[in-house]
Amino acid sequence: MDASHAHHHPVFCTVVPPHLLDKIAQSEDTRRADAAQRTLEQDSLLRTRRRVTTVRGIAPALGTPVSDEPRRTIYDTQHRTRLPGKKVRGEGEASSKDATVNRAYAGLGATYELFLKGFGRHSIDGSGLALDASVHYGEDYSNAFWDGQQMVFGDGDGDLFLDFTVSVDVIGHELTHGVTQYTANLEYHGQSGALNESMSDVFGSLIKQYSLDQTAEDADWLIGAGLLGPNVSGVALRSMKAPGTAYDDDELGKDPQPATMDDYVDTSRDNGGVHINSGIPNHAFYLVATELGGKAWERAGRIWYDTLTGGELASDADFKDFARLSVAAAVARYGDGGAEHQALQKAWSTVGLG
């Protein structure tokens, strides 16, 4: 399944959703408004560029054993927007004097390690794809993205948003868009797009939990904790535990995520609300993980990974499709009547997809 999707058009995905930047762009504070507007314009340009270029399928030479070690390269764009920029750290090289470079390097490593140790997957494409990242992108650029081939991090505006390498789950979130691109290739609009976003939040959170050796009970279940500036009323970009509660701020507005289908948001913005309605499958995952307890990547994460990569999940799948296939994946791996099967049924029922 993986290789067959290598020629698909990858989506351009940013961790900060456009609806949030739109709100800031209307700020009475001109510096904040201008910085948000510049980020939106840059994102729009990149989104158009993604549509006219296809991902290059990077297939490994047949018969070549895939290494268990990542191949990371970090570049510095030096506040310009030409990618990838100047190479500043390669695999196995000494750490940099630049903390941003080191955080990006460590985050790529943590992501690689969870997918390898947790699920037996070699890198994003399953075949040892090299992991490249560029830091210090643009001026006051308040976002991070996977462009189909590499990771890119802005420094934030230093006011509402801080450096985008500070949250390992944001790094994991963006790289997981690559995993989705190479597997189910979920279309980036409506419910399939919200599933695409949710996969990134799920595995982003698992990468953070894995790197901190946390149980489901210990985890904060936040995406982008530490990313919001000190003057923002909020704790993160999203909460999987309590969607809709991550922020409530004069400049950012109120977190619009629903936790259940009762509050599903019908909108044409944000590709049909991909960053909004992702709260529903996110919450289902949180419920499964906390019901099962222990390390969330071991059982709940395994079921989600099996569902994403099993070959049955269509690129235009909706929430009900994913719910049904995840229950089937749980039964296939753990048998029916067990704790896993029950946890899934209960969770999907709680969010209104029973």
Explain how this protein is built.
There is one protein chain. With 354 residues, the protein is an alpha+beta fold. Helix content is 41%, strand content 10%. The chain is built from ten helices and ten strands. It has a six-stranded mixed beta sheet with strand order 1-5-6-4-2-3, with helices on one face. A two-stranded antiparallel sheet has the order 7-8. Strand 5 and strand 6 (151-154) form a beta hairpin. Helix 3 packs across helix 4, helix 5 packs parallel to helix 7 (279-292) and helix 7 packs antiparallel against helix 10 (339-350). It is globular, with a radius of gyration of 19 Å. The two termini are 28 Å apart. Residues 1-7 and 52-60 have low confidence and may be disordered.
Short description:
This protein is an alpha+beta fold and 354 residues long.
Mean pLDDT: 93
Shape label: globular
Number of helices: 10
Strand content: 5-15%
Work out the oligomeric state of the chains in this entry: single chain
Which tags fit this structure?
354 residues, 10 helices, six-stranded mixed sheet, 10 strands
Architecture blueprint of SSEs:
Layout: E1 13-14, H1 18-25, H2 30-52, E2 72-76, E3 86-90, H3 99-119, E4 131-137, E5 144-146, E6 151-154, H4 168-182, H5 190-212, E7 222-223, E8 238-239, E9 248-249, E10 253-254, H6 270-273, H7 279-292, H8 300-309, H9 319-334, H10 339-350
Parallel strand pairs: 2-4, 4-6
Antiparallel strand pairs: 1-5, 2-3, 5-6, 7-8, 9-10
Helix pairs in contact: 1-2, 3-4, 4-5, 5-7, 7-10, 8-9, 9-10
